[in-house]
């Protein structure tokens, strides 16, 4: 039992006593004197512990179950944390967290104040690189390996480390992974200590693993074989150049025909595999061989199964990739009460409806068909749906190519992932004024996924681009209208950003209506005031904070200060007439948005300054704070960010010079 439990600083682990071998392993060093049979028992117990923990927290279960044996083998063979172990994305890192001193906190996973759902440098020395966006592990690992070599050259007492990057078959499809592998071949001696493990859980690259393949993988990873191959390599270099090239190609292609590794060999990696990722004795043997060689960089190809070892996950279509709390025996997930449709589904519904009468509409996503709601489009119009894989840069330029030929492409990508294609948005779409439609899902704060997936910056990074139109619906009805508007807008690029989660439960019309570009609306007019401060308050909202603005308006009205509330609808182009009207006729103008500083409020402020109206109105912008907000519920995150109704009221009263402590109990419990 580890020290944090002895001190009573962490909650008790309910499974202590059920898993006798795992109970003895508080850190990876505890694995290194165990026999292979004992390691197999650790793996069995670790799988059961992972299932038990995630059943109480929810999270990414399938990927974690698929790497149980690999996780045990890696920590048993390598000297972590001195040897660096990087998990690409981090969905699969729950077993890693359990083995690295965090078992007593694993049931705080993705909970307020608890463990992150991804790897995080500040959380543990066993997490050498933070993750959550895919395809970064090889680049980071290569950088670490080269850094270790340079440090060792400078300081002879410094021990060079092995660096292991575990990357999935989906993540390795992204261009960044190949950029890193291409560079590894010429990065110098440090790259010799880089081991890339391709975790192939979709059988998308190699055929099933058989006995001959197992034998060849063990053989090719052995010191004797590597030494013989190195000797052969030195010998052929003595031969005339044409013969040397022929011999090298013969070696590569002979192994490539057996293993499928020719591509990786061409990129400069020594390929080993495919290997059964659930065969723990074989994994331990091969990893020991690879640990003790300097013939890198090396790519080890392992075949795994998402959800392995837990029948409900194995038989589920999504392999329990992301689950809510669930019953361990039946696998049945806890479902909340049925609520309003999600913003994602509303966007999907209108897009599918419009596509029925407009064959120019196409839909593009980057490996997120269900997450973006485009799976419904794909089912209805498979010839016009394109999932490009984890390749956001390609997705955007692919859409630009379509738009240049008169199609109406919708590129649906999460806000946090669109960041990865910023150059393409600017150079290939905006600079050419091509009418690509961006459906920006998960805009704003996103709850349990935390800062890595928050859509905090899209208004700021798109708002600075000339000719970009940006819409933000205040509710699901507005999203319906904005989707229809985007379909019909052919004058240039247009983006509609909408949040994660459900709408307000409003009745949806049969179809969306096309909105006038750059035109907001007044929701509630200021009425006569009875309070001590005259002049009035105007609240200009962009996006779903409008509901909180109306709550704040009710609270202010109760104090004799009924404000004007307006819905901007567009961050760009601004409704300058609306903004000027609000500034001229109110003492205070508040803007509020679910985005970072530098977004909508900055655009409004610039306009007020240019027109001289900033001199005559007390302007107060309300944005996300200039820091990252950790995982929590969405409501709690927005309260922490200072964007709830009570914060709007306090901002208004402070701008008016009213002492909020004197306003009875109106703000009690809210501030």
TrEMBL record:
A GO term, aspect molecular function: 1-deoxy-D-xylulose-5-phosphate synthase activity
EC top class, as a word: transferase
Pfam families named in the record: DXP_synthase_N, Transket_pyr, Transketolase_C
Pathway: Metabolic intermediate biosynthesis; 1-deoxy-D-xylulose 5-phosphate biosynthesis; 1-deoxy-D-xylulose 5-phosphate from D-glyceraldehyde 3-phosphate and pyruvate: step 1/1
Free-text remark on how the cofactor is bound: Binds 1 thiamine pyrophosphate per subunit.
Start and end residues of each Transketolase-like pyrimidine-binding domain: 341-506
GO terms under biological process: glyceraldehyde-3-phosphate metabolic process; terpenoid biosynthetic process; thiamine biosynthetic process
Keywords: Isoprene biosynthesis, Magnesium, Metal-binding, Thiamine biosynthesis, Thiamine pyrophosphate, Transferase
InterPro entries for this protein: Dxylulose-5-P_synthase, THDP-binding, Transketo_C/PFOR_II, Transketolase-like_Pyr-bd, Transketolase_BS, Transketolase_C, Transketolase_CS
EC number: 2.2.1.7
Keyword set includes Magnesium: yes
Quaternary structure annotation from Swiss-Prot or TrEMBL: Homodimer.
Known role: Catalyzes the acyloin condensation reaction between C atoms 2 and 3 of pyruvate and glyceraldehyde 3-phosphate to yield 1-deoxy-D-xylulose-5-phosphate (DXP).
Entry protein name: 1-deoxy-D-xylulose-5-phosphate synthase
Gene: dxs
